[in-house]
Amino acid sequence: MKQYLTTPIYYASGSPHLGHAYTTFVADCYKRYRRLRGDDVLLTSGTDEHGQKIERIAELSGESIGSFIDTHSDEFLNLWKNLDIDVDLFERTSSSTHKELVIDIWQRIRANGDIYKGHYEGLYCVDCEQYFTVGDQCPVHRTPLENFSEESYFFRLSAYQQKLIDHIEANPDFIVPGSRRNEVLSFLKNSELHDLSISRTSTQWGITVPDDPGHVVYVWLDALAAYLSALGGLSSKKLGCYWSNSFHFIGKDILIFHAVYWPAFLWSAGLELPKKIVVNGWLTVEGRKISKSDPETVIDPLSLTDLVGSDGLKYYFLKTVSLGLDLDFRRSHLIDVLNADLANNLGNLFSRFIKLFIKHFPDGLEYSSDNIALVNKDLLQSIRDNANKFATAIERFDLSQAARLFIETAALVNANIQRREPWKIVDRDELGQYLWTLHHCLGYLTLLGASFVPGLTDKARIGLNLDAEPAWTDLYCQRRYVSVRLIGSLFPRIHG
Ligand code: MSP
Question: Which domains, and CATH codes, for the chain?
Answer without folding.
Answer: 2-298 (3.40.50.620), 331-482 (1.10.730.10)
